[in-house]
Amino acid sequence: MILQVQNVTKRFGGLTAVKNVSFELAEGHILGLIGPNGAGKTTLFNCINGVYDPSEGKIIFRGQDITGLPTYRAAHLGLARTHQIVRPLNELTVRQNVIVGACYGRENLGLREAAHVADEIMAFVGLSQRTDMLASSLNVAQKKRLELARALASRPYLLLLDEVLAGLNPTEVSAMLDTIRSVQQMGITIIMIEHIMHAVMSLSQHIIVLNYGELIAEGSPEEVSQNPQVIEAYLGDPDLAERLLEEDRI
Amino acid sequence: MKLSRYPGLIIAVLLVVLVSLYPIITGSASARETVFTVLMSLALASSLNILLGYTGYVSFGHIVFFGLGGYVGFYTLTALHWHLLLAVLAGGAAAAGLAFALGKSILRLRGAYFALATIGVNEALRAFINNFEPFGGPVGMDMKFAIYNEYGGAMQALWIVYGGLIVITLGVIFTSYAVKKSKFGLGLMAIREDEDAAEVMGVMAPNAKTWAYVLSAIFPGLIGVLFFFKNGNIEPGDAFRLHLSIELIVMVMLGGQGTVLGPIVGGAAYQQLRKTLLTSPLFKNIQLAVAGFLLLIIVLFIPSGAVGWLRSRFATMRRVLE
Amino acid sequence: MVNVLLASLIDGLLIGFVYGIAAMGLSLIFGVMDVVNLAHGPIIALGMFGVYLLFSLLGLNPFIALILVAVMGLLFGLVMYMTAVHRVIDAPPLSSLLATFAVNMMIIGIGTSLFTTSSYNVEYSLGTVTAGPINVTGTRLAASLIALLVTAALYWFLYYTRTGKYIRAVANNRSSAELMGIPSTRILALSFGIGTMLAAIAGGLIATIFPINILAGGSYELKSFVIVVMGGLGNPLGALIGGLILGLMEGVVPVFMKTTWVPVLEFMLFIIILLVRPQGILGAKE
């Protein structure tokens, strides 16, 4: 198991954003993390990579307890993530952005090697044409790719993708899906938060569902999509949910 | 090492060397005094730039390192009879030590909170030294003339101080360039752009910021010793003048923050401007107001400074103007 | 000893109210727009000289002059906001720090050429009020009463008027306030104006108590920083409490040690509070 999340709870004052969540993740898999808005998905990510210190519970990454370690320690151990709202280093070039990921990631590379890695990763995600542009001048789809490129450049074992498909048009979505599949083929384990159902369903080996901070279901995509509790949580109306899922597949 | 690969560094170094050679060649003491002020400004501005321009932390009370270095150096010179070289090093060490301690504490604060805290540190130290009898309290300390004799008399001592300042200034520029071109510097710039995102990518921000702070504090500490040795006396008001701190920020902004050349150009230009205003019959009385007006224009309309503006305007300049 | 202590305590407390409103201006501006107004000190000095000039040239009662000074302080703030601050309101903090500092330089530059840096006095007395062993000068008592009144008025304005509620809404979340149809630029300019008005009033009150000079605002600006951090940055009413604490310190500490240690203690306190409780003793803006 590359990651074990054990009874993680995160409270903010009186609000419990994540309640007693546990799951395990096998190496090489893609885990889909779904749930309605405000279900605590991003909070869970933040607990895993150390942005937040969980109020209770443990995060075990590759056999090591990383609960409450600063985010940069998690990064050094091979845990990378992208942000739901992109956070490019605006006044640096695309290449510099990716080099930061390579320099300070798991392999702790020097500038020169990092530049090689960056070139390779930029080619992989399709940013080779834009290496010397300032990150601020990219469009949304390119910024999403930049987020991914920075994370990949750190040569992670585990990659947390927070809605990398949001805001993309259908062509961009399918291109990104191909990219994510290739990332998996590189041997990187992935957890992805996603709202586009057909995407999560087609990519993930396993899915967990959060609602009001609690884990309400887990299983294969088929199992989860037929789970009435999930459908209820998602839309309140099982029939409507069924129909939407159908439409999504087309 | 092929020099042509470092155009940005060479331009900066050449500028400084040419300017500082002039008084040496002509042997003119008044030219030396003018250049001394210019070099001191641009060296202080360049060291501030390591924190302000690269790391994005606004140190409003940066002059505290100049003052503390000056005091420690002055004390070792007059009370302990150390050699000037040792005194200068002591001043730098004191400044670095303070920056390290502050880095572990107030650098946690962000934005305006950090800026306010640095003002607080400067004022606290000033007020403290005002009460600190070993350093002469409110009246400060004086240098006995005999001390200059150890360096071949006052005239000779002034030239030695001048030479020392040139060395330190070149040191600042090399450091500034090396930081900018290093992995460490890239980490600092990542912190400047988005500290949390930088940490998620693995940049150990607390450490990196502390070292940037220490680097940017050492040089003002060294320079403080030279300045007050030359000055012959030191008192709290001169050593911790908040106004000078802010002038340094203005120099960095004028030239372009985050560039190697910017603070050099900005420091020189600011001193030139000040001199012009001070000697002009029209502006003499309101030179401060005119300077304020210019500052406002820069902040509102050219926030990236002269060098920054050139870099963004002409892509080809980017390779040359670091 | 008890009498000396009591007298210092009351003196300190009274001046604390005046410190309080000076700091309130700084705090209000920071709370609403995250701008630290580095022209705060010179504006306090403008308030001082406003009262001085109206009193000595026109023979106006200083406390009547204060009303005019307040209006001018408000206008000055509106103009300053629109010319120097509005453009950098969303820029990194350095820009607004420098923009306001530029105004500082202009005021000090022009002020120095007009008045030099020598000291002036508002020769006005309200006698002395005596209660048992305690003597308090009338102007000091009046100044603190006016400061208290201004605080009450500010509180009423912020919490019970529509415009005041707009200001708090903008402070809380500018973009949502804009979505609700609140004209944010006008509210920002007004808040800035009120902030500078409070500084000018504080300056005017100080002029009735102490000798003034054009650079005197600087030390009150530093005191305001200390107070604002104590009371919580962006919490104007916390500033009053902070002002009283600082006033008490200044009154009482010299009884026990040299006066020159007061600023050391003040700035130590300032740094410690920033480090351990940056939200201030009472908590910063929501």
Order of helices and strands of chain B: HHHHHEHHHHHEHHHHHH
Major sheet: arrangement of strands of chain B: 1-2
**Separation of termini of chain B?**
18 Å
CATH architecture of chain B: Orthogonal Bundle
Mean pLDDT of chain B: 91
The arrangement of helices and strands of chain C along the chain is HHHHEEHHHHHHH
Structure description:
The complex is a heterotrimer of chains A (250), B (322) and C (286). Chain A is 42% helix and 24% strand. With 250 residues, chain A is α/β, with parallel strands linked by helices. Chain A folds into two domains: 1-67 and 158-170 and 183-250, Rossmann fold; 79-156, no CATH class. In chain A, strand 9 (206-211) and strand 10 form a beta hairpin. The model of chain A has no long low-confidence stretch (mean pLDDT 90). With 322 residues, chain B is mainly alpha-helical. Chain B has one domain (3-320): ABC transporter involved in vitamin B12 uptake, BtuC. Chain B is built from 16 helices and two strands. Chain B has a two-stranded antiparallel sheet with strand order 1-2. Chain B is globular and about 55 Å long. By secondary structure, chain C is an all-alpha fold. Chain C has one domain (2-276): ABC transporter involved in vitamin B12 uptake, BtuC (Orthogonal Bundle), CATH 1.10.3470. Helices cover 76% and strands 3% of the residues of chain C. Chain C has a two-stranded antiparallel sheet with strand order 1-2. At the B-C interface, helix 5, helix 12 and helix 14 of B face helix 4, helix 9 and helix 11 of C.
Short recap of the structure:
The complex is a heterotrimer of chains A (250), B (322) and C (286). Chain A is 42% helix and 24% strand. Chain A has helices spanning 41-48, 71-77, 94-104, 111-125, 140-153, 170-185, 197-203, 221-226, 228-235, 238-249, and strands at 3-12, 15-25, 30-34, 56-61, 64-65, 79-81, 158-162, 189-193, 206-211, 214-219.
